[in-house]
Amino acid sequence: MAFTTEGSADQPSVPAATQPSWIRPVSEGTEQATPNDYDSFAEAYSAENETSLLNAYYERPAMLNLAGDVAGRRILDAGCGSGPLSAALRDRGAVMTGFDSSAKLLELARRRLGDGADLHLADLTDPLPFPDAAFDDVVASLVLHYLEDWTAPLAELRRVLRPGGRLLVSVNHPFVDFLDAARSGGSYFGIRETREEWTLGGHTALMRFYGRPLHAMADAFTGAGFHITGIDEPSPAPEARELYPDVFADRPSGTFVCFLFFALQAG
Length: 267
Ligand SMILES: C[S@@+](CC[C@H](N)C(=O)[O-])C[C@H]1O[C@@H](n2cnc3c(N)ncnc32)[C@H](O)[C@@H]1O
Description:
Layout: E1 23-24, H1 42-51, H2 53-67, E2 74-78, H3 84-91, E3 95-100, H4 103-113, E4 118-121, E5 135-141, H5 151-160, E6 161-172, H6 174-183, E7 192-200, E8 203-211, H7 214-223, E9 226-232, H8 240-243, H9 245-248, E10 259-266
Parallel strand pairs: 2-3, 2-5, 3-4, 5-6
Antiparallel strand pairs: 1-7, 6-10, 7-8, 9-10
The site of S-adenosylmethionine has 20 residues, from helix 3.
Keywords: Methyltransferase, S-adenosyl-L-methionine, Transferase
Pfam families: Methyltransf_11
GO molecular function: S-adenosylmethionine-dependent methyltransferase activity
């Protein structure tokens, strides 16, 4: 989830990074690690997610805004992590189910949501353990960009939604991804693997993402039987500027871009 930084003589300057200090390029020694091992830093990630600019004051409010009135809706939280979005949707009256591929994050979700919470250890690249048409909505916050191929995962999400149900997605913004890729001569087109090092709670984890151009995202959604009903590029929550003065000090309003949001309807 990188944003670009200072300019140089031949490269125009863009506002300073939204990227927190704990995200860095991959260094020697980390490159051999298993990528995306959330179990290895679950507590630290969950704590960071709880209050971070990108999650608590940008992604989550935007997703809740997109979801609107969810009272009584059966919602699946795909890649639920430690459950902050599930908790917020449940507080608004939704009936929540969640799954994640990290057992440790699920443990934290259970601690947050209670023993009776409907939580499953499952991988989005495998068939999901839910019947057809079981949900009114699926929310997929910041999970699809971990997957190289979206075909089978989107088909599964479509299968578990009732016809007319909604899939609400947030992903790394393809434009922001591309600015990073362009620095090393990378192309906008095609699927780009990128790696980062995340150091949280004294542990350094190797993270691997797959960026893709906007048209590839649209093709994947429509190919899986979804109609695109909305695309959103929200601003951070109003209180973010006050809470994170360092990030916003040199950043005129309208220059904060990090994630892209889709509202989709199952056809
Ligand atoms: C950036 S975190 C976001 C967590 C949560 N959705 C949120 O927004 O707070 C990404 C989550 O996706 C999960 N994840 C990554 N790949 C996955 C996969 N193939 N299947 C299920 N979950 C996955 C991770 O374990 C992690 O919980």
